[in-house]
């Protein structure tokens, strides 16, 4: 009986922690939905019409969220595409073309990058990338959607590289020796066998990166320009997290303006759940066709 006591205590603590986290998430979700009800009741679908602008303090206030929603999706899409291209390539290089000890050193540095505060990325993007855009592309300020996407892609690289690296390592142990025994070259093995086998891992990395991109605030806010207009690649824009961060601390509690910001966060949660759901379905579909 006493031998099983530590196991029972560990099991109880695990269940207690899981319940506590779930309860906390439920309380936060209920609070966000509750605070957004006034805006939904008074404004309704108007918040999502292309003709409605974000002018919360004008004589005739408007609370259009569509520009920020499109800006969020635009920046996240650019960042995830760039992170996947360079992240998968980097993971392949670390697995196939570097000695294991040297690759481990690089992976350690890549993991360190994931722990750098986002404000550091934003500051570097503002002083280097935005300045370069303003100089070489003859832009007025250099802050734009593309700059935000590039900075965010650099922040997402550690997540994509780590996920893809582990997937490639597992696939190599299963298929590489067989492929080489059949006379396939390293490149053919990588393209024809390893890549199809790691599709679930790539999807998982992409979804993790997209979820991270949707919620990023500070770095994006520093380089995107923060203009509540429909985004263009080399134009200013705004995302839902940056909109919330910029205005949440300077508005009256209980106002319609505050409720509209809660609606923005509800929309962000819905987008995140939709992305994760699509990623889960894609991962299951690819896993069924895995070698």
UniProtKB/TrEMBL annotation:
SUPFAM superfamilies recorded: MetI-like
Transmembrane spans: 12-33, 73-98, 105-128, 140-161, 202-224, 260-282
Domain ABC transmembrane type-1: 69-279
Highest taxon in the source lineage: Bacteria
Keywords: Cell membrane, Membrane, Phosphate transport, Transmembrane, Transmembrane helix, Transport
ATP-binding recorded as keyword: no
Places the protein is found: Cell membrane
CDD domains: TM_PBP2 (cd06261)
Any one GO molecular function term: phosphate transmembrane transporter activity
GO biological process: phosphate ion transport
Membrane topology type: Multi-pass membrane protein
Coiled-coil ranges (or none): none
GO CC terms: plasma membrane
Protein family per UniProt: Belongs to the binding-protein-dependent transport system permease family. CysTW subfamily.
Purpose of the protein: Part of the binding-protein-dependent transport system for phosphate; probably responsible for the translocation of the substrate across the membrane.
Protein name: Phosphate transport system permease protein
Gene designation per UniProt: pstC
């Amino acid at each position: 009986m006493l031998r099983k006591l530590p196991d029972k205590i560990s099991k109880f603590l695990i269940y207690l922690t899981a319940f506590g986290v779930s309860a906390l998430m439920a309380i936060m979700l209920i609070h966000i939905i509750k605070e957004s009800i006034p805006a939904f009741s008074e404004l309704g679908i108007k918040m999502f019409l292309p003709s409605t602008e974000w002018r919360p303090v004008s004589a005739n206030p408007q609370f259009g969220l569509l520009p920020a929603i499109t800006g969020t999706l635009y920046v996240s899409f650019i960042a995830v595409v760039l992170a996947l291209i360079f992240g998968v390539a980097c993971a392949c290089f670390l697995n196939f073309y570097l000695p294991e000890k040297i690759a481990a050193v690089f992976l350690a540095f890549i993991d360190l990058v994931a722990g750098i505060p986002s404000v550091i990325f934003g500051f570097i993007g503002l002083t280097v990338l935005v300045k370069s855009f303003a100089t070489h592309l003859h832009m007025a300020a250099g802050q734009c959607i593309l700059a935000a996407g590039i900075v965010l892609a650099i922040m997402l690289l550690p997540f994509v590289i780590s996920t893809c690296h582990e997937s490639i390592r597992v696939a190599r142990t299963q298929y590489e020796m067989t492929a080489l025994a059949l006379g396939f070259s390293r490149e053919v093995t990588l393209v024809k066998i390893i890549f199809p086998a790691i599709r679930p891992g790539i999807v998982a990395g992409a979804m993790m990166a997209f979820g991270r991109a949707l919620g990023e605030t500070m770095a994006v806010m520093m380089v995107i320009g923060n203009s509540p207009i429909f985004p263009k690649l080399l134009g200013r824009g705004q995302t839902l997290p940056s909109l919330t961060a910029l205005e949440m601390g300077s508005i009256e509690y209980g106002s319609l303006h505050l409720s509209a910001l809660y609606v923005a966060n509800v929309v962000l949660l819905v987008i995140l759940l939709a992305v994760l759901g699509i990623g889960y379905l894609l991962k299951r579909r690819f896993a069924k066709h895995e070698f």
